[in-house]
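Record Bifunctional aldolase/short-chain dehydrogenase, 653 aa.
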Amino acid sequence: MQSLWTAEEAAQYQTDLALRVYTSQLLGREPSLVLHGGGNTSVKVREKNLLGEEEDILYVKGSGWDLATIQEAGFAPVRMPHLLKLAQLEQLSDPQMVNELKTQMTRATAPSPSVETILHAILPYKYVDHTHADAVITVTNTATGLERVREIYGDRVVIIPYVMPGFDLARDCAQRFQAQAGPQTIGMVLMNHGIFSFGQTAQESYERMIELVSWAEDYITQQGGTLAPVTQDVPETALAPDLAAFRGQLSQGAGFPVILSTTRTAKTLHFAQREDLGSISQQGPATPDHVIRTKRLPLVGRDIAAYTAAYEGYFRAHASAELKMLDPIPRVVLDPEWGLCTVGKTIKEATIVGDIYDHTMDIIAAATQLGGYQALPAKDIFAVEYWDLEQAKLRKGGNPPPFTGEVAWVTGAASGIGKACVESLLKRGAAVVGLDLNPAIESLWERPDFCGVTCDVTNLDQVMQALETGVRRFGGMDMLVLNAGIFPGGCAIANLSDSEWRKVLSINLDANLALMREAHPYLKLAPQGGRVVVIGSKNVPAPGPGAAAYSASKAALNQLMRVAALEWGKDKIRLNSVHPNGVFDTQIWTEEVLANRAQHYGLTVEAYKTNNILGVEVTSHSVAELVAEMCGDLFAKTTAAQIPIDGGNERVI
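=>
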């Protein structure tokens, strides 16, 4: 591991706290040190309060901040004298500790201080860094971990046997540090938890961390624990139907919809196909902090019922009477065909689980080469999993958006109504798969809850590949918005060619039939019932001259929706249509087409845009909002409905 400190960058940070931000971000850049909110850092400063009095203040990382992106606002300022007094107490409950920390902050708007704040305070150094370094945890999570740590570090670190984070750990560290530390001490190893470094400058503390972790890395290499790159072939195979069915079972077991994200790479397949997987994967997480994300154990294979039964037994064995069991489904699934699957209420949660377990696989494999991976006993992991201070981190989000855990698919998603539908569905918490002929769809929204797939919906092979891609990413399909279509320029029937007729019906009707047919098995598995919304047209109830192919294709698609509603009701799938009129901020309405239609009705372009009873312009956004609502609870008992969104059209009325 190399130091990322540069004098040029550091020169931009003038204060002690600013330098604390800089080196915290350096730590956060290295995933093998910290992941997703893991680790914490601090700096001790003297500063004047409002009364002009100088105070000793500990700035410690606040809860909910990631080291990689932390700013000064992410550090909680806490009065040092009070922290040192708290460390002298014989006992302090978690609620009392949280209260004491919050009441001693000097900035009311600061985030809650880390649960390890008192531990940072008792270490007699200006700067303190704490990480969950993979290399250190690899060594500590072996049967002879204590001896190995001593062999690596000698007296340069103080070694702390595992104690649950919080006041007890801080008090134990204070006592052991005072008894064992000397001039040669540059760090502290917490068995099965992580490592601390410290120094009088930000650079010293940071570079000591790099040095300490590098020694552990070198030791692993010397002991034959270096992993060779996995280069096995990854055979192509269709997984989508099985993954979607599995996601349905998970959602049923959880009691809410979940995202199932699949990572099928040479590395994950190699690990999931290990002969000793049933042993090495069932020891526990690399560090207890991970349990609130990953659960204690992964599911090996696909027997969800057996996993939930085992989890219920684990809960009964360790729970006190007042505890309520969390959902019993796994967050990590290891399967020899699928590789690694991760589960979450959102794709963000599932991705965090995936990142953590990606590193856990490396730790387990390396520790196995050092004689055997060994995690903490189940009772210690349970204590953290059901520790209220950790659970509070997961409860901070408040009420989730209505489509949390659900997956929506939108065709023609790169522009116009389709693009607006994506935005409305994302806003309501859905993960969205967007299909479009335009390759720009793949980078249109660079966010984890969107998967853009280049797809010609008239090409069944591309549709099937898109289904495979989207289901591997998010796990299934709950909502389908059929939006892709074309609107050719005005053409009288007398002049309508066979090729133009077939082209319009191929895209507007045939492609949607195929997609509905292929989507049906996935919609049947939707935990809260499948929903389909067809983007129809005012031309269905009130066709206009010069649009025969378009009007006929949309009318036929509307009739297809009605028949599907009759056939699919037993599968708890509801289908409805919206009939917009004149949505002019779409690619269909080119300037040429718009001028042509306006001229046909003897209107100016502006008058044509608002040519309805209410005198309003219908936009993509207004259509999309209606579409999203039709997928929600408001329309939960409605199927085969046709709803105009046209500002009021006399011919429709």
